[in-house]
């Protein structure tokens, strides 16, 4: 089966992580996989896939496109043309696309019979927010559903219902964003990393992994840690990620005189090691799709305190505690203290369903229409 995974580029976001995991874990005897991206970005995932001999086509190489070209209209026209040409050459059985690229797929699918799949990686109202390109993407997605029987893949049951309502289709299924269980397993704390960060064994480490963006609520994370620090001055906050609000958050940290107790690690590719040094994971997001990081943290048996805005589908163990965002930082800090004092023995509640191998097998059944969808659907 020839499969194309199509995405803008291979940064280190959730969609890009998922595609990389698919590529590394699909049964190569069953799947002839090609990843098609708009631009070569010289990222960690690009290097990983190259070392694994995974076929990746960068349209920017193919059409001599430059991400910094000044004329966006010219870039888009070239990308429409390049996408159609490359997909014609590959002639795949399946095109599985991610993020807001439906216009390119609709143009390329004219007269073609490959099966189409779109994974919706965030809340529908966040993706299709009324802006010009997102509106075009929404309209093209509707046309692909109607004319090409596009199948939507959602991250959770609530999103599944939302998509069925928005697009007036039942051709939607839930597929978990699987993780590689071989990497994320309970083990002893990475003492070398702790030593490198000058964190002694008696320090309580509160951790967070996420892009510095409004949704992740970093300002409140700092407020929570400031409150917790008053309870336990023998503590550190470790923040992993990059983003447009990082400098603003550093200013807030300095305003609380916490610059010696908050550690900014930037972008990391040793996430299992980083998680291993956490005593508790803090995640007060304003909104989320279904954060795979919380699956990874639970798999490593690290307790997590999350906001009530996050979908309950992500509660896969008894190591998730929930707090309302209407509660102040002192209440959150008190909850952290209580969790760390009296955490129970770990119990899984469905974690095995997130094993990337199981997820890949399910996806292949969906691709080949063995899960009840008519194989002749185009």
Task: Provide structural commentary.
There is one protein chain. With 378 residues, this protein is of the alpha/beta class. The protein is built from 15 helices and 13 strands. It has helices at residues 14-25, 44-51, 59-62, 72-90, 102-108, 124-127, 132-148, 157-167, 191-196, 218-231, 246-255, 271-276, 292-299, 329-341, 356-367; strands spanning 2-7, 32-37, 55-58, 94-98, 115-119, 151-154, 172-174, 204-209, 235-240, 262-266, 280-283, 304-307, 320-323. Strands 3-2-1-4-5-6-7 form a seven-stranded parallel sheet, with helices on both faces. Strand 6, helix 8 (157-167) and strand 7 (172-174) form a beta-alpha-beta unit. Helix 5 packs across helix 7 (132-148) and helix 10 (218-231) packs across helix 14. The chain is globular and about 65 Å long. Mean pLDDT is 93; it is low at 372-378.
**How do the strands line up in the largest sheet?**
3-2-1-4-5-6-7
- The percent range for helix content is 25-40%
Radius of gyration: 22 Å
- Count of helical stretches: 15
Task: Please give the number of β-strands.
Answer: 13
Mean pLDDT: 93
Q: Structural class from helices and strands?
A: alpha/beta
> What characteristic shape results from the CA principal axes?
globular
Q: Quote the distance from N terminus to C terminus.
A: 16 Å
- Can you write the helix and strand succession as a string? EHEHEHHEHEHHEHEHEHEHEHEHEEHH
The share of residues in extended strands comes to 15-25%
Largest sheet descriptor:
7 strands, parallel
Low-confidence stretches: 372-378
């Amino acid at each position: 089966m020839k499969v194309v995974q199509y995405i803008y580029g291979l940064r280190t976001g959730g969609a890009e992580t998922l595609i990389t995991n698919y590529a590394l874990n699909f049964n190569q005897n069953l799947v002839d996989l090609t990843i098609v991206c708009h631009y070569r970005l010289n990222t960690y995932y690009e290097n990983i896939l190259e070392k694994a001999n995974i076929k990746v086509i960068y349209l920017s190489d193919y059409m001599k496109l430059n991400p910094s070209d000044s004329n966006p209209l010219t870039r888009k026209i070239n990308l429409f043309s390049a996408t159609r040409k490359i997909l014609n050459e590959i002639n795949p059985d399946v095109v599985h696309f991610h993020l807001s690229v439906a216009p390119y797929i609709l143009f390329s699918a004219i007269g073609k019979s490959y099966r189409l799949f779109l994974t919706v990686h965030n809340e529908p109202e966040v993706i299709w927010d009324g802006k010009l390109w997102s509106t075009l993407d929404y309209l093209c997605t509707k046309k692909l559903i109607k004319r090409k029987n596009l199948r939507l893949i959602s991250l959770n049951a609530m999103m599944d219902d939302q998509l069925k309502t928005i697009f007036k289709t039942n051709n939607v299924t839930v597929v978990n964003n699987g993780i590689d269980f071989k990497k994320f397993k309970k083990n002893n704390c990475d003492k070398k990393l702790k030593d490198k960060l000058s964190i002694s064994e008696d320090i309580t480490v509160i951790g967070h992994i996420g892009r510095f963006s409004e949704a992740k609520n970093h300002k409140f994370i700092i407020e929570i840690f400031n409150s917790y620090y008053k309870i336990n001055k023998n503590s550190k906050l470790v923040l992993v990620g990059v983003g447009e609000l990082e400098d603003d958050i550093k200013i807030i940290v300095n305003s609380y005189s916490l610059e010696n107790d908050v550690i900014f690690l930037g972008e990391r590719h040793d996430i299992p090691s980083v998680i291993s040094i956490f005593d508790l994971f803090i995640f007060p997001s304003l909104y989320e799709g279904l954060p795979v990081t919380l699956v990874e943290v639970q798999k490593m048996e690290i307790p997590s305190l999350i906001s009530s805005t996050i979908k309950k589908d992500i509660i896969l163990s008894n190591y998730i505690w929930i707090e309302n965002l209407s509660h102040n930082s002192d209440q959150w800090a008190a909850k952290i203290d209580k969790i760390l004092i009296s955490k129970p023995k770990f119990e899984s509640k469905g974690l095995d369903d997130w094993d990337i191998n199981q997820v890949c097998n399910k996806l292949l059944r969906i691709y080949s229409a063995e899960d009840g969808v008519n194989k002749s659907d185009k």
